[in-house]
Structure formats: structure tokens, C-alpha cells
Amino acid sequence: MRAYLLRRAGISLLTLIIASMVVFLGVRAVPGSPATALTGNTDFSQAALAAINRAYGLDNPLPVQYVDWVGQVVAGHLGSSPVTGMSVVTELGNAFPITFELTVLAMLIALLFGIPTGVVAAIRRGRGADYASNGLALFGLSIPSFWFGIMLILLFSVYLKWLPSAGFIPFSQSPGANLAHLVMPAFVLGTGVAAVLMRQTRSGMLETLRTDYVRTARAKGLSEWVVVGKHALRNSLVTVATVIGLQFGILLSGVAVTEEVFGLPGIGQLTINAVFQRDYPTIQAVALLTAAIVILINLLMDFVYMVLSPRVRLAGEL
Question: Is there a single domain that holds both residue 303 and residue 240?
Fold first, then answer.
């Protein structure tokens, strides 16, 4: 098991290195020089741009620039925004907790609705509960998040006046107000993920319920809830865990539209502003941070596989 996890950690590290190369080269492939982006002004003279290139090491060969950049990242120095003048680390430190909290809440909503609904749909296959669950899943997959968010704002903020329409308040300042500002965007994000989890759970449960060990458990006289909960659901969650890991990474990197609709100053809004303002140091940092988080989540999912499935655990020990 330890050897398996070490191998997966090595692969994850290699993937992160490749991702850092793609991010580094991608920023430099954008039209316009990094020096121009750092100045935030296209009217600088060639002498001024040359001075900036020397100051930031941009006149060095690309391999040297990459090594220098990686060294700065490891040391925790991601540069400064040429637009705001703030450290990129500070900007990420302000925005990431908001996006992370929103993502966790959205995933909790998805788990609470998606997995139980998928189990019920599998157990009641071909009945009303199955059709209703599939209809809700189709609704969650089809509805545009920006439109759904606007509808929720109109209902709960404009007409009912139960929830604030936009903005953010830290949890440390007011837990109740914090949750009130995040419940609608979390529900918007969680709806789509819940639909994916429901479909995956239903599919996995239907496959597991047809296996021999489930038939044996029923033949022993075990109750249906024991058969479903202890035997069928646990083995079905191996494939569901993959979807959870992937969806968590997608949520972290794809909340820009929802954050913009609800006025949340998270990573998504930070990225949108950085793109429009050609704030390349911030774009570079956000892209690398997102890649690192997705890779870390997949590594954690490998550990979850080992816990949930004896077959995976046995394969890891070979």
C-alpha cells in the first residue's frame, strides 16, 4: 500500500511539473511581451522595456526563466500584480478561501442530494421514483448556471427578501450572514454536480446489485437495507469517488460565472478581472494553483480507493 501511494505521489509530482511548464509557456505565448504586461502600458519606450526585461530576468533564455520562476514559486514568491500593485500571494490569500468555502458547500449539497437520490433510483428502477430522479438529474445537467442563479436571486432576494442578492461576509465576522450569502451560489453549483453524482450512483448501484455477492447476502436473509448499505453502496462508491474528485476540481476552477452573478470576490472573479486587465502574473498563479489542487485531489482519491475497495488495496500491495 505504501509503495502504491509513493508511486502515485511520484506521478502526481511529474504531472505538476508538466502543468507548470504548460502554464509558464502559455503565458509567454500570449501576444505582447511579459514586460509590456508588467508595465500595464503599451506606450513605454524600448529602452524602458529593456530595463524591465533585465530587472525581471526576462532577457534570459526560457529554460533559465522557468527555473527561476519555479524557485520563486517554491519560496512562495509569485510576483506582484501590475494593475493593483498588490502581491499575488496576498490576492490569492484573499480570494481562495471564498472559493474554497463555496466549493465545499456546493459539494456537500451535491452529496446530500445526489447519492441518496441515485440509490433510491437504483432500488426503485422502472418506478416513479426512478423516473422522477432521472428527470431532476436531467434538469440539473441542462439548466444554465447563470440563468438559475438569476432566477434564485429574483425569487429569494427580490420577491421574498429572505437572502442577500450579492456580496460576501467572512465566516469569522458573522457565521449566519456568511452562510446567507453563500447558500444560493452553493445551490447553483451543487445542482449540476448532484445530477452527475445521481447518474453515476444509480449506474454503479444497478451494476453492483446484480453481482453474486449481493445475491448471496440476500440468500442469507440479510435485510434489504444491510444489503444495500453495507454491500452494494460501498462497492459502488469506488467509481463515485472518482466523479467526486473530478467534480471538486472542476468546481474550484469553474466558479467564475457563478461568482460573477452573485458578486463574490473569489478566484473566479479574480481570474476574470486579471484576464481583462492582462494581469499575467495573477493569471499564471491562478492556473498553477488550480492545477496543483486538482492533482492533489486526485492523489487523495487514490487513497480513498484503497480504503473503499479491497481489490484496489490488494493490487497496490502487489
Answer: yes
pLDDT at 184 over 90: yes
Q: 120 with 213, same domain?
A: yes
Give yes or no for a contact between 285 and 27, defined as CB atoms under 8 angstroms apart.
no
Q: How many residues does the chain have?
A: 318
Specify the number of domains making up the chain: 2
CB 108 within 8 A of CB 95: no
Is the pLDDT at 87 greater than 60? The verdict is yes
Q: Are 188 and 293 in a shared domain?
A: yes
Phi/psi at 78 (5° precision): -110, 10
**Reported confidence tier of residue 106, pLDDT bands at 50, 70, 90:** very high
What is the average pLDDT value for the chain, to the nearest integer? Answer: 80
pLDDT value of position 179: 92
Same domain, 40 and 148: no
Which positions ≥6 away from 150 have C-beta within 8 Å?
261
Q: What is the pLDDT of residue 56?
A: 64
User: pLDDT (tens digit, 9 = 90+) per residue, 36-55?
Assistant: 666 655 566 677 677 767 76
Q: Mean per-residue pLDDT for 278-303? A: 82
- State the cell numbers at 239: 467509481
Residues 23 and 164 in one domain: no
Q: Is the pLDDT of residue 310 over 60?
A: no
